[in-house]
Amino acid sequence: GVPAAPISQRLDTLTRDSEFKGLPVVQKAISDIRNNIERSKDAKTGMFDAETLHNIRKDLGLKIKSVYDRANVKVDGAKAAKLETEIQKVIDEEMNAAIRSSGMRDIAPGVTVWDRFLSNFSKASDEAKTAIARRELANNPLQRTAIGESRDVAASMTPQMANMLSRPVMASNFVLRFIR
């Protein structure tokens, strides 16, 4: 597991960072995230499992945005992104420290299992987003095409019954009446 105390302590030092110090909304966001971390840890051990910590890390942007929304303050995109990045960095460094202290060796020099997981997760997320965008583009093309809808194509391919009022059929009927 990953101990919660070092993460909370580092978030406290982040509130004193000169870049975030005079901003009440940012201070509130850090406080809410720290409280979320404290609530999410295991009560007996004071530790996190990797899944819980990943979920907290993943939802940081939404949490920061919700604090801005509750305060009725326009989101400062640069500050919010910087704050999210700094908190993610704290979480990642503590996760890597916990992995190394457990005796696990790095996969490659300076690369832990957590780093590899985040890299793979990011790649898979990017591929999923690309597939969704491709599907949306296919459903809503940028320009109109001359291809009709599939039901129109299918309707044109179905066999048609003979029309009894067409001239050739009428002539045939006329001739057949006299043959009997």
SSE arrangement:
Layout: E1 2-3, H1 4-15, H2 24-40, E2 47-48, H3 50-58, H4 60-70, H5 77-101, H6 113-139, H7 150-157, H8 167-179
Antiparallel strand pairs: 1-2
Helix pairs in contact: 1-2, 1-5, 2-4, 4-5
Characterization of the model:
The protein has helices spanning 4-15, 24-40, 50-58, 60-70, 77-101, 113-139, 150-157, 167-179; strands at 2-3, 47-48. The chain is built from 8 helices and 2 strands, in the order βααβαααααα. The protein has a two-stranded antiparallel sheet with strand order 1-2. Helix content is 68%, strand content 2%. The mean pLDDT is 81. It is an all-alpha fold and 180 residues long. The protein is elongated.
